[in-house]
Protein backbone atom coordinates (compact mmCIF):
# COMPACT_ATOMS: atom_id res chain seq x y z
CA UNK A 1 0.00 0.00 0.00
CA UNK A 2 1.35 3.41 -0.96
CA UNK A 3 2.67 5.18 2.13
CA UNK A 4 2.21 2.13 4.37
CA UNK A 5 4.85 2.60 7.08
CA UNK A 6 7.47 0.18 8.29
CA UNK A 7 6.86 -1.06 11.84
CA UNK A 8 8.74 -1.51 15.07
CA UNK A 9 6.88 -3.41 17.79
CA UNK A 10 8.59 -3.57 21.18
CA UNK A 11 7.54 -5.91 23.98
CA UNK A 12 7.51 -4.63 27.57
CA UNK A 13 5.23 -5.74 30.43
CA UNK A 14 2.10 -4.48 32.11
CA UNK A 15 4.39 -4.06 35.13
CA UNK A 16 5.89 -1.12 33.23
CA UNK A 17 2.60 0.83 33.35
CA UNK A 18 1.48 0.26 36.92
CA UNK A 19 2.85 0.90 40.37
CA UNK A 20 4.82 -1.82 42.13
CA UNK A 21 2.39 -4.06 44.01
CA UNK A 22 4.64 -5.34 46.77
CA UNK A 23 7.68 -3.99 48.56
CA UNK A 24 8.88 -7.00 50.51
CA UNK A 25 11.56 -9.52 49.62
CA UNK A 26 9.80 -10.31 46.32
CA UNK A 27 9.82 -6.70 45.09
CA UNK A 28 11.05 -6.44 41.52
CA UNK A 29 12.25 -2.85 41.32
CA UNK A 30 14.74 -3.44 38.53
CA UNK A 31 12.23 -5.49 36.51
CA UNK A 32 9.44 -2.91 36.63
CA UNK A 33 11.88 -0.06 36.00
CA UNK A 34 13.35 -1.79 32.95
CA UNK A 35 9.87 -2.43 31.54
CA UNK A 36 8.97 1.23 32.03
CA UNK A 37 12.18 2.13 30.22
CA UNK A 38 11.12 0.07 27.18
CA UNK A 39 7.86 2.02 27.08
CA UNK A 40 9.72 5.33 27.23
CA UNK A 41 12.20 4.13 24.58
CA UNK A 42 9.22 3.39 22.34
CA UNK A 43 7.95 6.96 22.69
CA UNK A 44 11.41 8.35 21.98
CA UNK A 45 11.86 6.15 18.91
CA UNK A 46 8.40 7.13 17.71
CA UNK A 47 9.46 10.77 17.64
CA UNK A 48 12.80 9.93 16.02
CA UNK A 49 11.52 7.58 13.30
CA UNK A 50 8.13 9.00 12.30
CA UNK A 51 9.76 11.29 9.72
CA UNK A 52 11.12 8.15 8.05
CA UNK A 53 7.62 6.62 7.80
CA UNK A 54 8.27 4.10 10.58
CA UNK A 55 5.74 3.54 13.34
CA UNK A 56 6.94 2.43 16.77
CA UNK A 57 4.61 0.88 19.33
CA UNK A 58 4.92 -1.32 22.39
CA UNK A 59 2.87 -4.22 23.68
CA UNK A 60 2.73 -4.58 27.47
CA UNK A 61 1.53 -8.12 28.23
CA UNK A 62 0.37 -9.35 31.60
CA UNK A 63 0.62 -12.96 32.76
CA UNK A 64 1.06 -15.41 29.89
CA UNK A 65 2.48 -18.93 29.95
CA UNK A 66 6.23 -18.40 29.53
CA UNK A 67 9.62 -19.32 30.93
CA UNK A 68 9.15 -16.61 33.56
CA UNK A 69 5.74 -17.83 34.74
CA UNK A 70 6.12 -21.59 34.30
CA UNK A 71 6.82 -22.19 38.00
CA UNK A 72 3.78 -20.18 39.08
CA UNK A 73 1.42 -21.73 36.53
CA UNK A 74 2.74 -25.27 37.14
CA UNK A 75 0.75 -25.66 40.37
CA UNK A 76 -3.02 -25.58 40.66
CA UNK A 77 -2.73 -22.96 43.43
CA UNK A 78 -0.55 -20.76 41.22
CA UNK A 79 -2.98 -21.02 38.31
CA UNK A 80 -5.88 -20.23 40.62
CA UNK A 81 -4.13 -17.16 42.03
CA UNK A 82 -3.24 -15.90 38.53
CA UNK A 83 -6.79 -16.40 37.30
CA UNK A 84 -8.45 -14.87 40.37
CA UNK A 85 -6.30 -11.73 40.20
CA UNK A 86 -7.44 -11.03 36.62
CA UNK A 87 -10.77 -9.33 35.80
CA UNK A 88 -11.30 -11.84 32.96
CA UNK A 89 -10.40 -14.70 35.34
CA UNK A 90 -7.70 -16.16 33.09
CA UNK A 91 -4.12 -15.72 31.96
CA UNK A 92 -3.26 -14.58 28.45
CA UNK A 93 -3.33 -16.86 25.45
CA UNK A 94 -0.98 -16.90 22.49
CA UNK A 95 -3.84 -15.69 20.29
CA UNK A 96 -4.19 -12.56 22.46
CA UNK A 97 -0.64 -11.50 21.60
CA UNK A 98 -0.80 -12.65 17.98
CA UNK A 99 -3.92 -10.57 17.35
CA UNK A 100 -2.28 -7.47 18.77
CA UNK A 101 0.90 -7.91 16.72
CA UNK A 102 -1.14 -8.55 13.56
CA UNK A 103 -3.13 -5.37 14.16
CA UNK A 104 -0.01 -3.25 14.68
CA UNK A 105 1.75 -4.70 11.63
CA UNK A 106 -1.24 -4.57 9.27
CA UNK A 107 -2.77 -1.66 7.37
CA UNK A 108 -5.32 -1.42 10.21
CA UNK A 109 -2.51 -0.29 12.54
CA UNK A 110 -0.80 2.04 10.07
CA UNK A 111 -1.96 5.15 11.96
CA UNK A 112 -1.15 3.77 15.42
CA UNK A 113 2.14 5.29 16.51
CA UNK A 114 3.75 5.74 19.91
CA UNK A 115 1.09 3.61 21.59
CA UNK A 116 1.39 1.30 24.56
CA UNK A 117 -1.13 -1.50 24.16
CA UNK A 118 -1.65 -3.35 27.43
CA UNK A 119 -2.71 -6.96 26.84
CA UNK A 120 -3.45 -8.19 30.35
CA UNK A 121 -7.20 -8.65 30.64
CA UNK A 122 -7.47 -5.46 32.71
CA UNK A 123 -5.10 -6.50 35.51
CA UNK A 124 -3.14 -3.24 35.29
CA UNK A 125 -6.23 -1.38 36.49
CA UNK A 126 -6.26 -3.24 39.81
CA UNK A 127 -3.64 -2.32 42.39
From TrEMBL:
Keywords attached to this entry: NADP, Oxidoreductase
SUPFAM superfamilies per record: NAD(P)-binding Rossmann-fold domains
GO MF entries: oxidoreductase activity
Keyword Transmembrane helix: no
Signal peptide boundaries: none
Entries under Gene3D superfamilies matching the protein: NAD(P)-binding Rossmann-like Domain
UniProt similarity note: Belongs to the short-chain dehydrogenases/reductases (SDR) family.
Protein name per Swiss-Prot or TrEMBL: Uncharacterized protein
Species name: Aplanochytrium stocchinoi
